[in-house]
Q: What sequence folds into this?
């Protein structure tokens, strides 16, 4: 029994409805190591701007991780500015200001930890969906985000 899709394409071609389309007469571009039906499926998805579920999940994970990284970097910058401010305070205000700074720092770190946990709950299902092991993501750690932000901010000169 003939494939109904191929039959439909043949009918469209016979009526001339496939003539004059963009790229007519040019070879189809090859994308990486994809071939056959797999290449065709990815090509159709690409042409129609359709993402497989795992690719959409990756975009969401990346966006959330970027937002979290920016939040941590802003907090590290705030801590740095706050430390400079604390050095200028009169002695009688330093204790309360330091306590207040520590409370804000603890609250932000807890919020980041919760956000990392939520992101890691998304990474697990993503890793189960991806078609290749090399696309899998490692779980995040809040302390690693803070360490990376501090490294970017201070480089090798922290504490000098």
A:
């Amino acid at each position: 029994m003939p494939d109904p899709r191929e039959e439909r394409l043949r009918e469209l071609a016979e009526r001339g409805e496939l003539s004059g389309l963009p790229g007519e007469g040019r070879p189809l571009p090859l994308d990486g190591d994809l071939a056959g039906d797999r290449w065709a499926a990815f090509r159709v998805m690409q042409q129609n701007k359709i993402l497989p579920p795992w690719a959409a999940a990756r975009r969401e994970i990346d966006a959330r991780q970027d937002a979290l990284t920016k939040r941590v970097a802003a907090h590290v910058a705030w801590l740095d500015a706050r430390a400079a401010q604390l050095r200028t305070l009169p002695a009688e205000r330093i204790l309360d200001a330091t306590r207040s700074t520590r409370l804000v720092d603890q609250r932000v770190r807890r919020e980041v930890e919760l956000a990392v946990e939520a992101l890691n709950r998304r990474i697990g299902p993503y890793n189960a969906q991806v078609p290749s092991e090399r696309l899998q993501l490692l779980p995040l750690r809040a302390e690693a985000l803070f360490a990376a932000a501090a490294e970017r901010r201070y480089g090798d000169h922290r504490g000098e």
